Amino acid sequence: MKIPPGEAGSSGTPRNILVLDAECNAATCVVQSLGRAGHRISLAGHAEDAFSFRSRFVRHSFRYPSPLLSRRAFLDWFGKTVRPENFDYILPLSDLTLYPLREISRKIPGIVLPPEEGFEWFFDKARTLELSARCGVPAPRTLLIRSMEEIGSADLGEPPFFVKLTRSKVWMGDRGFDLEARLVRTPRELREAAGDLLPYGPVLVQEYEPGDGVGIEMLCSDGRVLLAFAHRRIHEYPLTGGGSSYRVSIALPPALLAASERLVKEAGWTGVAMVEFKMDGERFSLMEVNGRFWGSLPLSYRSGIDFPRALIDLLEGHPLPEGPGYRTGVYSRRFSTDFSWFKHNLVADRSDPYTKSRPVGRTLLEYGRFLSGRDHWDHGSLSDPLPVLSEIGRTLRKNVRDLAVRGSSLLVRRIAPRTSRGRLGRLMKRKTSGDRSVRILVLCYGNICRSPFVHHLLRQSLDPGRFEVRSCGFVEREGRPSPEDFVPLAREGGVDLSSHRSKTLSRDLLEWADLILLMDYRNWRDLGRFAPESLEKALWLGAWSGNGSGEIPDPYGRDREAMRRILTLMGFAARSFAADLGGDEVADRTGTVSGTTR
Predict the structure, then answer these.
(1) 347-366: per-residue pLDDT in tens?
(2) 228 membership: H or E segment, kind and range
(3) Is residue 554 flagged as an active site residue?
(4) Would you give the DSSP letter of residue 428?
(5) Which of 444, 459, 472, 520 is catalytic?
(6) Which domains does the chain have, with CATH numbers?
């Protein structure tokens, strides 16, 4: 079925429509579709530079606080800014706004949300799997894990697995988290991924399914499919499995359409939905259901199915006219994401069976489809060119900046050992004998391996009357333990991390510190973004390692011998740093006497 193009307002009275989630890829398509249908479009998002704001169909634009940073701040903005009398319909396009708005949907009419009675079926992945079993739709073997103890006792089979939360967005109090699914290839990676995700809720461990991603996109009313469209993924980013950056419209596979119809009928679904499958030959398996607009929406729009306009027509009570169907063999790609896919595909390991890479020559030939008129950029339009031009321009500028940053990072790494030693002397001269103790903050990315190990070594080596030592990391998830395969190796090095739990960097800690010990360039860069004024107190621990690079590599995820080498390096660097702080009298409490590396 197809919604034919028409004149502005031909399907009824033009409506005032507020579109949220300007940042998501569906936003520009929704704005262009409804704007061309004659509706008056306002657009809101939390990112000021979202491409969709550049569309000529946007009459009014708004910025709101990120719901992930503060759900309450977003809802406060919504309550103060959005007046029911100003908008006939309010369209949240992603889980980022869908979840918070469910709290107030009864108070404000016009918010277009999935039906409450069917919401959990499509927005909770565990419930989706229950629904698939009820409807006889094949799905990967999946186990629901609620504790680390269940990992050890469960009959999981052989990896690889995908490990993911049952919900794509999770709020803990006022703060939200967007935690991606992970492909794990070993039991150790499985334990680490589960350990990272379990603090946020139940975790699904799902067997890996080969094949191509195929999406069935639908508009439904009370469980009845009114419009349907199918696409196949060609490029997925990241390459281990993710959203599509390049796809093609295909004829509706009868078995997949029938399975999708059973799911929406059982859920009594009204609104839009995209059912995602993996298809390998004739075999297929359900991956998930998105009960909202999807990232590949521009392809269906380009192929002749106008889902946004049809949704408004459905809400208005207008009939959806029958048509000749949609065009197959139409290709569409999102410039920014596909550019990233192309770069990673260039260096991908072709021998890895779980990485969806493609031959470089074949990828280059794909661009020849532009000459045939069958290939398109998402949102590309001569009548509304600014969104895609903005996306192209910003993507290219970002990559030029990345090249410049890479060059500067090489320079920073080269001079870090010398500047760190010189800076230590200057910082210590500021301290007088009558001052309080010297405060040292040890910093790494996650505060589960490097910084807690060095923290404890320095506390063992330095006079507690003269020095205070703390550690933290940049990861905004506190309470994580050190990896279970790292703990015994750290114990061999004289440090017991069995009770350690991670802490997150804060401005209070930075103000507390006299010296900040970093592990690598990433820490230096992230600290500069978080609090650039603190860089004047920053030292690279690797300057005392004797390896010349100034960096201490991250042992996380490495094999046992690599971890042991890094622990040895950290031990040498920590004792050398302590010796420079305290002189030749500083004793290494692990049993040896520290000396400087000079």
Answers:
(1) 999 889 899 899 999 999 99
(2) strand 224-237
(3) yes
(4) H
(5) 444
(6) 1-113 (3.40.50.720), 116-126+216-384 (3.30.470.20), 141-207 (3.30.1490.20), 408-585 (3.40.50.2300)
